[in-house]
Design a protein that fits this description.
Blueprint: H1 6-16, E1 33-37, E2 40-43, E3 48-51, H2 54-57, H3 66-76, H4 90-102, E4 107-113, H5 116-132, E5 141-145, H6 154-158, E6 178-180, H7 193-203, E7 207-212, E8 216-217, E9 223-224, H8 227-239, E10 243-247, E11 271-274, E12 286-291, H9 292-298, H10 316-330, H11 334-349, E13 358-364, E14 367-372, H12 378-387, E15 390-391, E16 398-401, H13 409-424
Parallel strand pairs: 3-15, 5-6, 5-7, 7-10, 10-11
Antiparallel strand pairs: 1-2, 2-3, 4-12, 8-9, 11-12, 13-14, 14-16
Helix pairs in contact: 3-10, 4-10, 5-9, 11-13
């Protein structure tokens, strides 16, 4: 079937395509993208939008980058895909070397997966197999914190916030894990880590690992917390002999001001999940990295076989563009760019704090968050932002931006001023 015009294929989209986090019977509006370049999305009607979302935090170099385009074009002429079972290829080995070299020394082993959610599934499997191989078969539970988000697959959902993650809808299907209070840091330098420690004391014999997002809780609430919490967590995990998993799918590759958020606490997890910005937003690819300790633990029963193997694992196209993306990041002035973005966000979003509908404004690295007192009307607010010439996708009580690192000052100002303009005229739902 061919479509005569944009209206035709948009109608087909509305009738047949199920978009994320929306209803088929009462769908949210969708906006047709014709092309994208730099930090701009061009709609089919000719309007251009400054992208404040980096396509869900992945397109850190912007769109249609010549270096990343060239990497894909070169690779597609040799091999676009080959199974990774029993075969290997240079793009995957090169990418593994880059990842090992840029992360902390204990993280020496790389498992490639299709998406961030899948890397969390793999991390959970690693943790459970680690203890199973050593005869501790009761250690099959995870401990995490509230307000977390770790993906939409069942394993990832099971360690998301129970309310935000809709656990009640899937009760009896989702694995049941343990939850502590969301991380908080107080003015006197203390934290609420004791709530997590009590869970470990009570359930140590069942807990295989602790999993959380370091310093920034993403889609579960866009909350920030201090490095002291992570430092204390590492000590407690060692004390109670459980593995520590960091989910840096959203924070990895510079978003918080360091290449990885764990660097700001000077702690190292046993297992690290990475994704999103890994390929610069070009193709889906993610990785679960781990230490020799975990590899040797999984091999303690003489097998060492990790029970996971995605069909498109280590796809050569994705690996090659990831290599190019990492090289592009490391050769750029990314640290200075993040500091400039952070400074501008702090200055320009601060005016939102004066609005009566706003609960809090917070900024960390290239992340700017305006939390409202009540949930937004997604349909109307999304349209308001498009009218302002920006792409910002709010959710729940949060209006936030995570722009590409290449964004210019005037482009970022359009994003921040649009947030203020929309909020100052916004009428909360009755």
């Amino acid at each position: 079937m061919s479509f005569k015009n944009t209206s035709d294929w948009l109608s087909y989209d509305k009738e047949h395509l199920w978009h994320p986090y929306t209803s088929m019977t009462n769908p949210l509006p969708t906006y047709p993208v014709e092309s994208a370049h730099g930090v701009k999305l061009k709609l089919a009607d000719g309007r251009e939008l400054i992208d404040g979302m980096s396509s869900w935090w992945a397109a850190i170099h912007g769109y249609n980058h010549p270096v990343l385009n060239a990497a894909l074009e070169q690779q597609i002429h040799s091999v676009s895909h080959v199974m990774f079972g029993g075969l290997t290829h240079l793009p995957a080995v090169t990418l593994a070397e880059k990842l090992v070299n840029m992360t902390a020394e204990p993280l020496q082993h790389v498992f490639f997966a299709d998406s961030g959610s899948v890397t969390v599934e793999v991390a959970i499997k690693m943790a459970i197999q680690y203890w199973y191989a050593q005869g501790q078969t009761k250690k099959q539970k995870l401990l995490t914190v509230r307000n977390g988000y770790h993906g939409d697959t069942l394993g990832g959902m099971s360690v998301c916030d129970p309310v935000n993650g809709m656990h009640i809808m899937f009760q009896g299907v989702l694995p049941e894990h343990f939850f502590a209070s969301a991380p908080d840091c107080f003015a006197d330098g203390t934290t609420n880590i004791n709530t997590l420690q009590r869970q470990l004391q009570q359930h140590q014999s069942e807990i295989a690992a602790v999993i959380l997002e370091p310093l920034v809780q993403g889609a579960g609430g866009m909350r920030f917390y201090c490095s002291e919490y992570l430092q204390q967590l590492r000590i407690i995990c060692d004390e109670y002999d459980v593995l520590l998993i960091f989910d840096e799918i959203a924070t990895g590759f510079g978003r918080t001001g360091t290449l990885f958020a764990y660097e700001q606490a000077d702690v190292v997890p046993d297992i690290l999940c990475l994704g999103k910005a890994l390929t610069g937003g070009y193709l889906t690819l993610a990785t679960t990295m781990t230490s020799k300790k975990v590899v040797q633990g999984i091999s303690a029963d003489g097998s060492g076989i990790l029970m996971h193997g995605p069909t498109f694992m280590a796809n050569p196209l994705a690996c090659q563009v990831a290599n190019a993306s990492i090289d592009l990041l490391l050769s750029s002035s990314w640290e200075m760019n993040i500091r400039q973005i952070e400074s501008q966000l702090q200055k320009e979003l601060s005016v939102c704090q004066e609005l009566p509908i706003v609960k809090e404004v917070r900024v960390k690295g290239a992340i700017g968050v305006v939390e409202l007192k009540e949930p937004v009307n997604m349909k109307t607010m999304q349209a308001d932002f498009v009218e302002q010439g920006v792409w910002i996708r709010p959710f729940n009580k949060l209006v936030y931006i995570m722009p590409p690192y290449i964004i210019k000052q005037n482009e970022l100002m359009l994003l921040t001023t649009s947030i203020y303009k929309v909020l100052v005229n916004y009428k909360p739902q009755p």
